[in-house]
């Protein structure tokens, strides 16, 4: 039955499949026998045969195969050996028995002899003991192995008197018993012998074989019991002839005699069969994994060992295969592979990320370096340019002058470029802060066009058109808006050879939704600057602007005096209206090819390299414009047709400042309106190329021309003579004074006197100048300027002053004549001295205190127009003091910790002029911080404390002048 | 011509001070203030004030640093003052050394502070010598001008 198993253990390729103790070694036979002894186990073997099934017909065929023959030979040998062994054992037993028999016979002889002797001696006398004969007979007949011993023993045991009758009787009895036992032994021995003989007969080879096979079978089952293994043999047609499957899904009869195809269907079967055929054809065993997906047992993976089986003649008669289910292992393996792949991907990603991070860092560093370098280059470059400008003022011949002009213009170009780079890196790094100021869009457009016209070297018409609905004033970062416009216009001019370039400004009818929120992104600050006068525009705008339109800006100064300065207070009182301004800058130039449009706003990109060569430039301008517009919450885009022109449009959200009730300055407003009627009404500007007036016409006269007949105006490169004014920078005021003010002398004489009083006050560190206070109050109350500063203008008649005012509205002399009151809060004596000197130079009255506390006391007693506040001071620092002052301004009463010691002081000052108190509470004193470190953090702190602005120390003339111009109410 | 020679000497001194970085554009401002504002002696006044102030501060710092327990905050405050003063007059080198000094104060390093103090002192004395020479020259020029008149 189980022979099939034994046909295969010969298999040397996969020996581990089979129990090692089967077969070939003699010593192991005994072990096997021992195990095999249990009868129950053997029964079980029969029972367990179920999972395997066999075609016995086939077995015969297999027996004819080489392996089968050797197997048979082995069995025969084994049987012969066994039989010889048994024969030997039997012989031994026979020998033993023969020996015993001999011994018995000897004994019997002995006994008989003894008996005989006794009988002779005894029966010779008494001859009648018939029973004894029988005893003799028996003893004779049935000898036993141990009868001698027993006999001897019993002989000793007889107690009775020797030779007495009882003795003999006893003896006879005993002998009889011994005889009996001997008989019995003989009988049992005979039986044993018979049995042995029978046994001998039963040890035929067949029985031996089957026993062995059964035991092997049993072992196999024991070992394979729980192994997930399928073992099978298939014939040349790949029909199953034997299969062992521990977890059968089919009954045996469904498998035997059938092919894989007949049993199974689905994935993998075909492949396996092909491999089997291959194995049969090649005769080389193989091991493979097959993935099955059959309806019968689902998706499973088996590793299968297939080996060919050869007949005696070497023909292939079938295959054996062993298959093991490794589905779980495969799954695990796949999972591992998957994890490994994912790990690799992750690692790759990480490397990529770290690389890009590295690149970003590098880029940032490069940008930082670019910014730093630009900054570093700018300083010496401005030195070079300044020197060149000075050089221009010296005596030069024509050639030298031309060379110098080239030098200057090149220098300006480099400076512009560096400024561009700095701007860009500022915007990109988020360091760019927008300032919110109130400005007049018409003015801006006009200025930009003027500037462009001034440097125009082509026959182009520049025009500007501003919609009627554009508000007179809006709030935004005018500098940046100007920068954008200037950039776009200069671009337009650069790429336009004939025709016109212009700006259209109008309000978008439909405000994009959420414009208020957008407006909020403008970084408007609550303490936004007061209105920026045009004078500041020009002073802060790019240098060449100033230079080119120097005459204009001077004139603007005069015009802008009237701009109401106090918009800042009303600005955030109520909800502000926001408008979207749309500005189109159009030209009739070469246009931009469509394919270049997407690159247009990229850094360092130009429409084409040809253009770059032809027109120069870095390609930074538009990138900056776009960034700036986006920073302000707007969008910039372009429409262009090649050879027809381009239009750059940007829309910007702008707040409209709430109109202040101008009753505060009844005299200023009308005059300002008077000044601006022309420009306010003007909705369009036109600068035509023709009619170039002669170079030497004075700036003022040009300006006047422009304003009277503004449509026909042209600009020309600035005359060198005008340049020196700009160069002298902050000190222009003095020159202006000497040049066109009649009050020069009074100014000069006033300076020292003021200073001397201040010096006295310095010692007290606390100044109460009621006289000046009265002055400032009276001027603010509505008195004309002529009232202020009587000590300066005393030698002039009121007429003269009025005339002065009307002609030189913002002549730089005016501050000195007005005696604005400045409080300087500073603890460092040297700083005080320098700052004092500077302020006096500007013609301002100045009170000095040494710390925050003193500053508060000073404010409690005197009304100041502006406070310059050091930040770090003993006792109370500038921030603290500012907070107190601001809280007083808001609530009208001082914090208890800084309450004035003498209430009557306030009341007295209140009595001295009724409005003093009202003004004190209502007006917000501009407080300017003087910070030692001009970092943005520190500046923000200052602004947070309620300061309006800051200047970084050491204060220089230019800074302080700009600051005062900005924050001091104009007269 | 002695006046012109003196002036040459003065301007040479000043330009050497600028080129050495002893003083910066802020000092130029002071000069400008003096010239533009018509206040002769302003620079002398400021410089003298600065020198006295700085000397006092340096002495204060030296005393503080000699204490067994150094109050670096106090030292820092003084250095800050000195920095402010020197910035105002444009004493560039003193200002820079003060900035370094403050670093040491923040690190609370006594040795560093002592070293920085020595440096500050050196720079200051150097500058003061130059200032003194400068003032003397100015006085001489003035005296000469006076005589001429």
Automatic annotation (TrEMBL), chain A:
Keywords on record: Coiled coil, Kinase, Phosphoprotein, Transferase
Biased amino acid composition, Acidic residues: 1-13
Any Pfam family: HisKA
Residues modified to 4-aspartylphosphate: 870
Biased composition (Low complexity): 776-789
Keyword Phosphoprotein: yes
Bias (Polar residues): 738-755
Catalytic reaction list: ATP + protein L-histidine = ADP + protein N-phospho-L-histidine
Limits of the Histidine kinase domain: 372-656
Coiled coil: 172-203
Protein name: histidine kinase
Organism: Zizania palustris
UniProtKB/TrEMBL annotation, chain B:
Residue positions, PTM Phosphohistidine: 80
Locations listed in the record: Cytoplasm, Cytosol; Nucleus
Domain HPt: 39-144
Single GO BP term: cytokinin-activated signaling pathway
Example of a GO cellular component annotation carried by this entry: nucleus
Keywords (A to Z) from UniProt: Cytokinin signaling pathway, Cytoplasm, Nucleus, Phosphoprotein, Sensory transduction, Two-component regulatory system
GO molecular-function term, one example from the UniProt record: protein histidine kinase binding
Function, as annotated: Functions as a two-component phosphorelay mediators between cytokinin sensor histidine kinases and response regulators (B-type ARRs). Plays an important role in propagating cytokinin signal transduction through the multistep His-to-Asp phosphorelay. Functions as a positive regulator of the cytokinin signaling pathway. May play a regulatory role in salt and drought tolerance during plant development.
Domain text: Histidine-containing phosphotransfer domain (HPt) contains an active histidine that mediates the phosphotransfer.
Protein name, as recorded: Histidine-containing phosphotransfer protein
């Amino acid at each position: 039955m189980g022979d099939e198993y034994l046909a295969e253990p010969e298999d040397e390729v996969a020996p581990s499949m089979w129990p090692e103790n089967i077969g070939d070694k003699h010593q192991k036979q005994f072990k096997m026998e021992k195990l095999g002894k249990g009868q129950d186990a053997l029964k079980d073997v029969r029972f367990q045969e179920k999972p395997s099934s066999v075609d016995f017909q086939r077995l015969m065929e297999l027996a004819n195969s080489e392996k089968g023959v050797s197997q048979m030979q082995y069995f025969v040998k084994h049987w012969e050996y066994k039989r010889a062994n048994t024969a030997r054992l039997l012989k031994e037993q026979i020998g033993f028995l023969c020996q015993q028999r001999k011994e018995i016979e000897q004994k019997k002889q002995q006994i008989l002899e003894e008996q005989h002797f006794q009988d002779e001696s005894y029966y010779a006398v008494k001859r009648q003991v018939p029973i004894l004969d029988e005893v003799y007979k028996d003893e004779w007949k049935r000898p036993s192995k141990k009868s001698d011993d027993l006999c001897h023993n019993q002989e000793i045991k007889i107690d009775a008197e020797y030779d007495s009758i009882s003795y003999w009787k006893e003896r006879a009895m005993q002998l009889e018993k011994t005889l009996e036992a001997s008989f019995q032994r003989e009988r049992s021995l005979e039986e044993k012998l018979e049995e042995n003989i029978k046994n001998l007969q039963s040890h035929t080879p067949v029985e031996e074989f089957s026993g062995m096979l059964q035991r092997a079978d049993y072992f196999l089952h024991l070992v394979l019991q729980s192994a997930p293994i399928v073992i099978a043999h298939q014939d040349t047609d790949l029909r199953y002839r034997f299969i062992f499957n521990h977890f059968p899904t089919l009954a045996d009869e469904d498998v035997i005699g059938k092919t894989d195809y007949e049993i199974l269907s689905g994935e993998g079967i075909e492949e396996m069969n092909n491999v089997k055929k291959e194995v049969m054809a090649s005769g080389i065993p193989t091991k493979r994994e097959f993935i099955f997906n059959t309806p019968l047992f689902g998706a499973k993976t088996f590793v299968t060992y297939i080996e060919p089986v050869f007949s005696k003649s070497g023909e292939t008669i079938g295959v054996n295969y062993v298959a093991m289910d490794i589905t779980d292992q495969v799954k695990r393996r796949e999972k591992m592979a998957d994890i490994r792949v994912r790990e690799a991907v992750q690692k790759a990603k990480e490397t990529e990320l770290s690389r890009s991070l590295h690149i970003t860092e590098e880029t940032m560093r490069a940008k930082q370096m670019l910014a730093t370098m630009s900054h570093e280059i700018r300083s010496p470059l401005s030195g070079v340019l300044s020197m060149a400008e000075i050089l221009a003022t010296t005596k030069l011949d024509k050639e030298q002058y031309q060379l110098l002009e080239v030098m200057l213009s090149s220098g300006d170009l480099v400076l512009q470029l560096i400024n561009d780079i700095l701007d860009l890196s500022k915007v990109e790094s988020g360091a760019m802060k927008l300032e919110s100021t109130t400005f007049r869009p018409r003015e801006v457009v006009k200025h930009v066009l003027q500037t462009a016209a001034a440097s125009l070297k082509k026959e182009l018409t520049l025009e500007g058109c501003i919609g009627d609905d554009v508000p007179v004033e809006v709030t935004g970062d005018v500098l940046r808006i100007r920068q954008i416009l200037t950039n776009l216009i200069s671009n337009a001019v650069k790429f336009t050879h004939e025709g016109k370039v212009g700006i259209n400004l109008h309000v978008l009818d439909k405000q994009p939704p959420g414009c208020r929120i957008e407006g909020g992104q403008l970084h408007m600050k609550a303490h936004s600057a007061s209105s920026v006068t045009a004078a500041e525009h020009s002073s802060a705008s790019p240098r060449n602007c100033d230079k080119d339109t120097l005459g204009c800006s001077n004139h603007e100064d005069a015009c802008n005096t009237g701009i109401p300065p106090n918009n800042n207070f009303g600005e955030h009182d109520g909800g502000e209206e926001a408008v979207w301004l749309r500005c189109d800058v159009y030209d009739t130039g070469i246009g931009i090819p469509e394919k270049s449009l997407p690159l247009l706003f990229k850094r360092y990109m130009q429409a084409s390299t040809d253009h770059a060569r032809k027109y120069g430039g870095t390609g930074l301008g538009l990138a900056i414009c776009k960034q700036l517009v986006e920073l302000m919450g707007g969008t910039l885009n372009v429409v262009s047709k090649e050879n027809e022109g381009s239009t750059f449009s940007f829309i910007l959200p702008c707040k409209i400042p709430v109109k202040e009730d101008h009753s505060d300055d009844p005299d200023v407003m009308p005059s300002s309106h008077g000044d601006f009627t022309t420009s306010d009404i003007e909705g369009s500007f036109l600068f035509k190329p023709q009619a170039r007036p002669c170079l030497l016409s004075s700036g003022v006269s040009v300006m006047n021309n422009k304003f009277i007949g503004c449509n026909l105006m042209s600009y020309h490169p600035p005359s060198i003579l005008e340049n020196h004014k700009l160069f002298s920078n902050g000190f222009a005021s003095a020159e202006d004074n000497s040049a066109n003010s009649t009050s020069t002398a009074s100014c000069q004489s006033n300076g020292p006197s003021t200073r001397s009083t201040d010096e006295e006050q310095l010692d007290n560190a606390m100044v109460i100048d009621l006289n000046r206070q009265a002055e400032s109050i009276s001027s603010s109350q509505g008195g004309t300027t002529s009232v202020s500063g009587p000590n300066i203008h005393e030698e002039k008649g009121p007429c003269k002053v009025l005339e002065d005012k009307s002609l030189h509205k913002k002549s730089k002399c005016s501050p000195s004549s007005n005696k604005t009151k400045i409080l300087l809060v500073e603890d460092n004596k040297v700083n005080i001295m320098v700052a004092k000197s500077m302020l006096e130079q500007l013609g301002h009255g100045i009170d000095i205190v040494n710390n925050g506390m003193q500053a508060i006391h000073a404010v409690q007693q005197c009304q100041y127009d502006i406070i310059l506040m050091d930040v770090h001071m003993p006792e109370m620092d500038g921030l603290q003091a500012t907070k107190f002052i601001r809280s007083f301004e808001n609530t009208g009463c001082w914090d208890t910790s800084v309450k004035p010691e003498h209430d009557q002081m306030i009341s007295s000052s209140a009595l001295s002029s009724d409005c003093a108190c009202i003004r004190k509470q209502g007006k917000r004193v501009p407080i300017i911080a003087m910070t030692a470190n001009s970092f943005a953090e520190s500046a923000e702190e200052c602004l947070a404390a309620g300061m309006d602005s800051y200047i970084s120390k050491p204060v220089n003339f230019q800074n302080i002048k700009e600051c005062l111009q900005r924050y001091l109410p104009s007269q | 011509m002695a006046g012109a020679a003196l002036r040459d000497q003065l301007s040479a001194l000043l330009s050497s001070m600028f080129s050495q970085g002893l003083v910066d554009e802020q000092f130029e401002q002071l000069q400008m203030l003096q010239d533009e504002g018509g206040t002769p002696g302003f620079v002398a006044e400021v410089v003298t004030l600065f020198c006295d102030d700085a000397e006092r501060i340096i002495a204060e710092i030296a005393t503080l640093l000699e204490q067994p327990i150094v109050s670096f905050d106090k030292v820092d405050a003084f250095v800050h003052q000195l920095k402010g003063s020197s910035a105002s007059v444009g004493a560039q080198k003193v200002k820079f050394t003060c900035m370094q000094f403050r670093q040491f104060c923040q690190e609370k390093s006594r040795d560093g502070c002592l070293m920085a103090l020595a440096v500050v002192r050196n720079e200051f004395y150097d500058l003061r010598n130059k200032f003194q020479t400068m003032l003397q020259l100015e006085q001489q020029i003035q005296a000469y001008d006076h005589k001429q008149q």
